[in-house]
Amino acid sequence: MASYEIVGSTQDAVAPVLIVAFEDWVDAGSAGSTAARHIAQGGDVAVDFDPDMLYDYRSHRPILDIVDGSPTSIAMPRMRMWRRAISERDFFVLTGPEPDYRWREFAAGVLRVARDIGIQEHVSLGAIPSAVPHTAPTPVMMTASSKDAVSGQPVVEGLLRVPAAAVSLIEWSNAQAGIATVGFWAQVPHYASPYTAGAIALVRRVETHLDVTIGAGDLETEAAAQAKTLSELIAANAEAQEYVERLQHLVGEQDVPTAENIAEEVERFLRNQRRGGGPTPFSP
User: Fold this and answer.
1) 226 vs 12, 18, 58, 166, 196, CA distance in Å?
2) Do 32 and 106 contact (CB within 8 A), yes or no?
3) What pTM was estimated for this model as a whole?
4) Phi, psi of 130, deg, nearest 5
5) C-alpha dihedral (138, 193, 160, 185), degrees to nearest 10
6) For residue 90, what are the β-bridge partners?
7) Most-buried pick from 27, 41, 98, 116 (CB within 10 A)?
């Protein structure tokens, strides 16, 4: 089982909810991980997972600080669970880079911690690259362990088969253990990264779903600055401007993308990653 250490308080939690979001896969525009860090802001570390059990340091390299020619510190990638009280509920936020291996052991460890805490509900956060413009509100899709939970919510109909993420395995394991689970997945422009507007949309869905007040805080300022930069870049490129205008015309024609459209966007995202280039306004 993945090694972890209880380093803070996990007892006497009030109506505890578990928020899970990992960097890297299914975190387009860093929207999910940004939302999770924002929700955890001001909280305390409750659980610390051993990075040696989870990461290949060649893909998640530690950061070395060198000051005046002398190494001063080295920071390992960390997977941590934070505790923060919000609106008379205790939020436990699990976030960090997506593990490279031992996913099942990791999921079993998270489930053990969730049971010890008495987690009542699990919420996954993430984002997928989509054919949506940055000028429109960010759509958010929903998944859930119960069909009743998604009643009236935007969901993808039919079979959607995509490469799985570690966050999905955590959600699946907790759901199989009887913990109610939901997932919120922002659809962010595939040409924009980072995309803080997607993080704000996820925070607001968490607020609505759990009937709590979190607020967007500094995320609003970051999102406005990013929107300004994107608009300036796109205005300077006729091809990119034409592409965004086409996306704007599509807004409202289809509230939820089809499984086929999502698969196409994921494939586009993977092709960009294999080429070694990130999504930009110039590669529609």
Assistant:
1) 41, 29, 31, 28, 8
2) no
3) 0.86
4) -140, 160
5) -40
6) 85
7) 27
Please state, as a whole number, how many other Cβ atoms lie within 10 Å of the Cβ of residue 232: 10
The residue with tokens 């805490």 is 117
Amino acid 18 reads L
Amino acid at 153: Q
Residue 54, pLDDT above cutoff 80: yes
* Residue 168 to residue 143: CA distance in whole angstroms: 10
β-bridge pairing 89-97 and 4-6: unpaired
| Residue 224 identity (one-letter amino acid) | A
Largest distance between two CA atoms of the chain: 60
What is the total residue count of the chain? Answer: 284
Query: Which amino acid, 12?
Result: D
Q: CB neighbours of 30 closer than 8 A, spacing ≥ 6?
A: 23, 127, 193, 194, 195, 199
